[in-house]
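Usage example:
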Amino acid sequence: MRREGSPFQGLGTVFVKELSDNISSVRMLVLELLILLTALAALYGAIDSLRQNTAEDPFLLLRLFTLARDPLPSFVAILGFLIPLMAIGLGFDAVNSEHNRRTLSRILAQPIYRDALLMGKFLAALATLAVNLAALWLMVIGLGLIFLGVPPGTEEIARSLVFLVVAIFYAGVWLALAMLLSIVFRSPATAALVALGVWLFLTVLWPMLAPAFAQVIAPPDPRYTALGLDTPDTGLWSLFLMRVSPNELFIEAMQAVLSPTTRTLGAVFLEQLRGAVMGAPLPLAESVMIAWPQMVGLIAGTIVLFVAGYVLFQRQEVRA
Amino acid sequence: MSEQPNEGATAPGGVVIAADGLTKRYGKAYAVDNISFGIRRGEVFGLLGPNGAGKTTTILMMLGLTEISSGKVSVLGHDPARQPLAVKARVGYLPDSVGFYDQMTAVENLAYTAKLMGLDLAERTRRIADALLRVRLDDVAHKRVATFSRGMRQRLGLAEIIVKKAEIAILDEPTSGLDPQATLEFLDLIRELKAEGTTVLLSSHLLDQVQRICDRVALFKAGHIAMMGTVAELSVGVLGAGFVVEVEAQGTGIARRLATIPGVTKVETVAPERFRMTAERDVRPDAASAVVAVNGALLKLSVHEPSLEAIYARTFQTDPAGGGVRHAA
Ligand SMILES: Nc1ncnc2c1ncn2[C@@H]1O[C@H](COP(=O)(O)OP(=O)(O)O)[C@@H](O)[C@H]1O
Ligand SMILES: [Mg+2]
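Running the assembly step on the lines above writes:
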């Protein structure tokens, strides 16, 4: 049975309303401050160490993103950790709060489809995240200009823009997950808790668990162990399992894009290749090709999670 | 294609909502079971029944907000399952315990839905101001809805329907949870809507209110329509007659004499000097003269008008399982 009328009718209206809600919300302000302060700390560390050893680096600006100085992780690593938090903060009560406020049936009694409501909310949250990430990106460029005194080259700007796009898709995965949970669970607290649980599991526990599982699936070969080497099979499995986590995909993609010398992705090979490839940067297009599977993975994850939420929402009862 | 003119739906007195064998199943439970009815343009129609009888489900199917299991319904000539936007553009809905965005003002809340209706800025501003004036919320137009009482929220919901200039207003339990004063005010607003020619469909489990305002009612019982018609028609059907007149009088042969009054169908002697007559009309004058005619002393004379309460009690008494959902098999 075909339904008549555009599924996008009302999309713009929902988008504008949700965007202004997001931007004016206290919750968003707190998350922004959290990210801003940690990012500033990381950048301070990076700037400091870059100023101390003023070696000739053609990609000085990019080093700002990736350089870590103990005890702080790099700017990219911090974003990898905090972007999910921000996305979850925007999405965990997207749909269930409409149920709980009893606004859902009133809104859906207007001449719009559910598609417009869900998509409007998703796009508005994604736009909010994009605006915040773009602001952070500008901050990095600005700080680089001020404290390092080197104007960034075109290639650096291009690479950092790719970083921005990938970061937005990474946020999209977590946003789609949070919105899916907001459809599944009627209580926003439950949805938030589950989302945060998944986030902690994938970013903190999974990097420890994946190698352990890999050793179970493909036990290390004693011949390699005797030589002090990792067994290739175990390493591959470990990498494969790690890549279930969007966090890993994001970090790998960032490595390829922001460190132009990266020729291959994956911890195992990287260890083996390090040194051999130093000082031979790849052109941007090739770096992007290396990170392509990771980027596609993030985009696909966003789409799959959004579609799952969409299907559930279409079949859900509107009444509270 | 979606705007096929439908003669029946546009003519005054024509049928604007027609349900035919409408059914909704949740798993094996029937929430609404094979109901058919027609609602005419300009009337106030009441869906009446205890909680869980299927009133809300029926309404949601008419708006295309929940899937129809079988049967069909046509609203203003449109099929809500296939053309929900066409239906929702012309029908206003006040949900059961309606909610608003608390951090936004009354005007902002209405502006949001008015935008969703596709109204431009000038039209929006004008209609919202008018509607708030009509529901007497103009003085709190720029207050946050968080501060509103339940009655004010209901009125704001009605304002939304007025902004839409809806041809049909569907109100789900509009007066439940309101204090008597707020209820009266709200019923007045519904009467105003009707006076403007809006068709009103309202659901309620509060009978006397529905009785006061509805032209016709449908009694819901466990997903079925047990009865449908005007309150007077129903009372004849269920109670056997419309009016119950009670007489308290001293004297002999009163009961026999009362029974001869035309239009009286039954006389019961409820106490030694108390008689209850069931009649098709208000027979108090005749009863008084009857008592006088046998030289009796009339102590008290009272009439109970046909009451939905009584009809309802009688309808739902007969089946002790009434009120629940029928389970198939
Ligand atoms: N999502 C649902 N799943 C299963 N049963 C439901 C659902 N929604 C309503 N029902 C059942 O359908 C019946 C009719 O409910 P409803 O239409 O809300 O009644 P009313 O509005 O007359 O109080 C109730 O028995 C209710 O339990
Ligand atoms: Mg109900």
